[in-house]
Amino acid sequence: xxxxxxxxxxxxxxxxxxxxxxxxxxxxxxxxxxxxxxxxxxxxxxxxxxxxxxxxxxxxxxxxxxxxxxxxxxxxxxxxxxxxxxxxxxxxxxxxxxxxxxxxxxxxxxxxxxxxxxxxxxxxxxxxxxxxxxxxxxxxxxxxxxxxxxxxxxxxxxxxxxxxxxxxxxxxxxxxxxxxxxxxxxxxxxxxxxxxxxxxxxxxxxxxxxxxxxxxxxxxxxxxxxxxxxxxxxxxxxxxxxxxxxxxxxxxxxxxxxxxxxxxxxxxxxxxxxxxxxxxxxxxxxxxxxxxxxxxxxxxxxxxxxxxxxxxxxxxxxxxxxxxxxxxxxxxxxxxxxxxxxxxxxxxxxxxxxxxxxxxxxxxxxxxxxxxxxxxxxxxxxxxxxxxxxxxxxxxxxxxxxxxxxxxxxxxxxxxxxxxxxxxxxxxxxxxxxxxxxxxxxxxxxxxxxxxxxxxxxxxxxxxxxxxxxxxxxxxxxxxxxxxxxxxxxxxxxxxxxxxxxxxxxxxxxxxxxxxxxxxxxxxx
Length: 525
What we know:
Elements: H1 4-21, H2 31-45, E1 56-58, H3 67-76, H4 81-106, H5 114-117, H6 124-127, H7 131-152, H8 156-172, H9 174-194, H10 200-228, H11 240-245, H12 259-282, H13 291-294, H14 296-306, H15 317-334, H16 340-375, E2 386-392, H17 417-422, E3 425-427, E4 440-442, H18 448-451, H19 467-474, E5 480-484, H20 494-506, E6 507-512, E7 518-523
Parallel strand pairs: 2-3, 2-5
Antiparallel strand pairs: 1-4, 5-7, 6-7
Helix pairs in contact: 1-4, 1-16, 2-3, 3-4, 4-7, 7-8, 7-9, 8-9, 9-10, 12-15, 12-16, 14-15
């Protein structure tokens, strides 16, 4: 007799891998820049990074956001940039899915529940290229699973594993670490609430102290990190955010074609969890030792409505908090003991939505990958140890007919990172080196964000730059300029007209891609 569960899981994994491996490149907004910085890190480790160190200094602090770069640097030692990135995303998928599976096995949940995890894999933030943030969420699920396993059957081996996962999660991204440790503490409180033993307060103190001891080194590191990236934090109620939850934009990653399925998937998630919660309360299907974890979405709703948009150098915190809020709905669903047929029905329903939204997304992934193949076709026309200024006039990317490739995400904002990952170059839109919390930091006189950008800057979709000023301050030459999706009509803007006049006066066309979307200029003389 054919069992449906293995077949459904196989199809879910196949659809997942198709999204990653079918396109020529798995393009995300910040992904190419991560690859470029990882390439520099690899070269510096190999003793071949002297050219880079004329423009950058290496951070003296091992801050959160480093894990992705370290892994990518190692992968680049054995694979091309495109394959290394796909391997990294595949690793993220494995960590995320196996973390869910481990958590479900610990709480003795229904075997169909891992299907729910696929809904959260390809988030809007992943498509923005927030690799470290998303990897940390996958690691945090492993942290939660191992902690719950430890509470059920304490052991020194498990505790050592918890410490290791905690450390890796922190160095990956602080939000995943805070989320994981917070849920672990909620599990301790839930165990105390559900216990009728007189020793429950001793349990609360002992387990809280264990968590505190595990967290203390990283609290200290986080304090140092926040001190270096000081920002005024103003907690305030953002009433407009509540409505944004029900747009479910976190499930729409590339184009409007996904929106219908994202809406169905989002509303189903909310209603199913509320129905399951009500059912569990009425029919007493809720294990009290998981009570606060079931109520986690309500806690995160409060966080989401009040968290500032930027803090400690990090941005888009509201978007990240909203993603965690939706994820917590999926997690809380796992802690409610529904009937077998109910769990199977709801899990398969999520699988259907995940499949539909993926099928709607794949053509865009393929088109974006082909566009990047055209974009990087100019690699052979650039000399090594040169300085490249990429100027994108469409972060969304455009097809030959002028339509957007992705109308929901800026996939091409930092696409030049792929060129830097394949060649020893200085790519001037390396925003990471301007943040202070990635491995490389621009040297003061070389920083293009301070000395090259004018008006709305080099990353605006009508980019502007004072090349002569930068060359004078940086004592270097901008050897190449890359225009992406440029149209002559942009010269109606006086700043663009002035910039293009300068380029045409001092540079000559070196290469034009086959569909003319990428044009490379080389400095004359």
